[in-house]
Amino acid sequence: MNRDANEIELLAVSKTKPVDDILAAYHAEQRHFGENYVQEGYDKTVALADYHDIVWHFIGPIQSNKTRLVAESFHWVHTISREKIAQRLNDQRPPQLPPLNVCIQMNIEQESSKSGVVDEQVYALASLVDTMPNLTLRGIMAIPSQQSDTHKRKQVLQSIADIYHKLKQQFTTVDTLSLGMSGDMGDAIAAGSTMVRVGTAIFGERLKKGTD
Ligand SMILES: *Cc1c(COP(=O)(O)O)cnc(C)c1O
């Protein structure tokens, strides 16, 4: 499969990493950064507030009592899987900011350890998000399991890509398939990912565990 590198956005996942690491990547032209923990991510957006062209993506689980900080300080959220969270982000997005870009998180393998909507649910949630004035529906995000069965892994990636293409036909704002991490970005790109979320391969192993 041939893909043009311009079609694929690199999201640098900087969770648990210090602000200096983000700045080093910034000086190497990186602009999109992903954070998983609300407080840590918020602190970084404050520390780097002078860098107006950084695009901050929230890619961690969101509890409803933490939506305000996310709505106020991030540009993107990849982990929408409940109507309640979408509604709160829409209501709490400050009016002077452009709409928050959102991806719906899918969990098509129905793993209990992960959040995300299953198959058909995505269309209902997408239709709802599409009506919210302070959110822009950009696409879907998934974290496929790292199973060793190559055929199965590709099947999962393909089903996610199929749903993405259906959504794209239905909603004109949809242009993002957030899929692929350090360990599986090659397969994800082959399947049609438009945004890979890469932490370890850019910043090295994470030593500490993040906290919310
Ligand atoms: C941590 C994380 C990543 C990056 O993972 P790496 O394996 O370090 O590249 C990507 N996406 C999500 C949702 C993550 O939580």
pLDDT averaged residue by residue: 95
Helix content: 25-40%
| Count of helical stretches | 8
Task: Please report the distance between the alpha carbons of the first and last residues.
Answer: 39 Å
The largest sheet, given as strand count, sense and whether it forms a barrel, is:
8 strands, parallel
What do these coordinates show?
With 212 residues, the chain is α/β, with parallel strands linked by helices. The protein is built from eight helices and eight strands. Strand 6, helix 6 (150-170) and strand 7 form a beta-alpha-beta unit. The N and C termini lie far apart (39 Å). The mean pLDDT is 95. It binds pyridoxal-5'-phosphate.
Which SSEs are present, and which pair or pack?
Layout: E1 9-13, H1 19-27, E2 32-35, H2 38-47, E3 55-58, H3 67-73, E4 76-80, H4 83-92, E5 100-106, H5 121-130, E6 135-142, H6 150-170, E7 176-179, H7 185-191, E8 195-198, H8 200-203
Parallel strand pairs: 1-2, 1-8, 2-3, 3-4, 4-5, 5-6, 6-7
Helix pairs in contact: 3-4
